[in-house]
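Suppose you are handed only these lines of text.
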Amino acid sequence: MKPMSMLFAAVALMGTALIALPASSATPDEIIAARRANQKRVGELVKVVDAAVKANAAATSVLDQVKEIDDRTHLIKGYFPAGTETGDTKARPEIWSNRAGFDAAADRYVAEFDKLLVIAKAGDTAAFGAQWATATSTCGACHRDFRNK
Ligand code: HEC
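From them, the structure of the protein bound to heme C can be written out as follows.
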């Protein structure tokens, strides 16, 4: 097994990947790489769902993607432990100096994607488009304050 793959507990359960944080033994560089990969994957999934929303596709057609984004939103706070401020990262120092602000931005992100998942499961395509705009606005709100360009 490759060392990186041992850092993660990825459990396949009824077709749903349970996505987990790096093990506590991971080095700062490994945690930074993992959080960037997590965000990159979220970005890819957002593009897929965004195209579906623009095409007015049924909300249920992107249920898998929405579920995975939502799972990943729940990890974000754990990806920024002390000791990962520097390295190959665009994280701003404000994440650590204004932790309450960062956590609040993360909580909004989680809450709005939780709502989106409920709507996707219900198959309410009209409500989905509106909630999609709200949920994705939480990405830029956090990047504006906590990510370097
Ligand atoms: C609570 C704050 C927060 C939220 C919410 C957030 N991000 Fe980020 N994101 C960050 C930070 C901080 C980084 C920089 C991480 C680093 O370089 O270590 C980042 C990095 C990224 C990256 C670059 C990954 C790479 O290749 O290095 C992408 C793409 C991204 N985010 C997409 C998104 C999308 C899409 C959403 C919403 C669905 C989102 N983010 C929500 C904080 C956030």
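What can we learn from it? Residues 1-15 have pLDDT under 50 and may be disordered. Residues 32, 35-36, 39-40, 42-43, 46, 76, 89-91, 102, 105-106, 109, 136, 138-139, 142-143, 146-147 surround heme C (CB under 6 Å).
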